């Protein structure tokens, strides 16, 4: 093979071999080759067979000389040869969008193998951009979920558990033990356990629908504020009824055990059917003895007082102020004979 050393100018040399030939610098196992100036390799590939490659520069540029708007070949990065297994890629891919500060940006780093299958990343932390109020965005698109699959009882690392339930603690606001880490992310399992545990330890004071004029049911207890224990029912923020331990007040009506009375002083109590309906009483009715009442404005009032000549003790007073005792059958027969 022909070899030539050409001198170009005063201090420039070219070592040239025939086309397809090779040049080998063999200094033996302990020798070294030092290039004191810049090294430019113009071939299509460079192969380094050393076990360790040490690079003093703090940056390495790939896809050098790109003139397009982004990586013209779509991807650029590092390839890890895995032998008979699929090679692993650490690529910047122009076709994958990312999100930063709520803004979609072209291109993203991706870990994958040569088949396109996405690979995992082991790391102790991932930190969001600190140059502004940027959040760490997970799953900016698609239908996937964030999961802690693979951990052992993740929820029990966030809260102390007793069996399958969050441990109770009466001294806290929730009546449950405090979390081991206030900033820990919540999983679906932990959320369900917390809701079940909270509701088991905390009874709600009321239920409500609406904000401005709510309709609600609310409980009050003597042990909480020394007020009378009761349950209040409000419709459109207007008190409709109150249930106490021994009575139920609805409007101006009070239902106490077996009695229904009006709360208003000298107030009336009306029992009425709807339309042509009537009030029916299926059992005997007792009318207590009273003093003579005032005449009604309309109709007749029935009342009871001590027996008189009529023999019934049942009296009436009508709107004309006429008052008298209703006579029994025997008294009526006697009066008809006498008069």
List keywords for this structure.
single chain; seven-stranded antiparallel β-sheet; mainly beta
Main sheet: strands, sense, barrel: 7 strands, antiparallel
| Secondary structure tally: strands | 19
Shape: rod-shaped
Radius of gyration: 48 Å
Overall mean pLDDT stands at 90
Could you tell me how far the N terminus lies from the C terminus, measured between alpha carbons in angstroms?
166 Å
Question: How would you explain this protein's 3D organization?
Answer:
The protein has helices spanning 155-158, 188-201, 222-225, 329-338, and strands at residues 3-8, 12-17, 75-80, 88-93, 98-100, 103-105, 108-113, 161-162, 165-166, 206-209, 215-220, 230-235, 238-243, 248-250, 253-256, 259-262, 300-304, 314-318, 323-325. It has 339 residues and is mainly beta. Among the domains are: 69-146, no CATH class; 155-201, no CATH class; 206-262, no CATH class; 300-338, no CATH class. The chain has a seven-stranded antiparallel sheet with strand order 10-11-12-13-14-15-16. The model has no long low-confidence stretch (mean pLDDT 90).
């Amino acid at each position: 093979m022909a070899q030539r050393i050409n001198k170009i100018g005063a201090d420039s040399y070219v070592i040239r071999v025939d086309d397809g030939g090779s040049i080998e610098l063999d200094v033996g196992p302990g020798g070294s080759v030092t290039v004191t100036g810049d090294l430019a390799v113009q071939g299509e590939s460079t192969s380094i067979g050393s076990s360790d490659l040490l690079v003093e520069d703090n940056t390495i540029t790939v896809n050098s000389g790109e003139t397009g708007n982004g990586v013209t070949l779509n991807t650029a990065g590092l390839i890890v040869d895995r032998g008979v297994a699929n090679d692993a890629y650490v690529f910047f891919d122009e076709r994958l969008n990312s999100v930063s500060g709520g803004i979609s940006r072209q291109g993203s780093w991706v870990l994958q193998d040569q088949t396109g299958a996405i690979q995992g990343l082991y790391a102790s932390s991932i930190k969001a951009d600190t140059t502004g109020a940027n959040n760490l965005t997970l799953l900016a698109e698609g239908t996937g979920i964030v999961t802690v699959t693979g951990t052992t009882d993740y929820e029990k690392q966030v809260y102390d558990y007793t069996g399958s339930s969050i441990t109770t603690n009466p001294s806290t606001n929730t009546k449950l033990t405090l979390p081991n880490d206030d900033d820990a992310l919540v999983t679906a399992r932990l959320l369900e356990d917390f809701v079940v545990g909270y509701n088991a330890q905390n009874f709600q004071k009321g239920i409500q629908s609406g904000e401005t004029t709510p309709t609600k049911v609310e409980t009050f207890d003597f042990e909480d504020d020394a007020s009378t224990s009761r349950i209040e029912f409000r419709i459109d923020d207007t008190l409709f009824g109150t249930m106490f331990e021994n009575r139920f007040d609805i409007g101006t009506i009070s239902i106490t055990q077996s009695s229904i009375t009006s709360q208003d002083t000298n107030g009336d109590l009306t029992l009425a059917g709807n339309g042509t309906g009537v009030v029916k009483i299926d059992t005997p009715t007792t009318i207590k003895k009273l003093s003579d009442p005032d005449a009604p404005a309309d109709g007749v009032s029935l009342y009871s007082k001590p027996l008189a000549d009529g023999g019934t003790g049942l009296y009436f007073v009508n709107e004309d102020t006429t008052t008298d005792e209703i006579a029994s059958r025997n008294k009526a027969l006697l009066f008809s004979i006498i008069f």
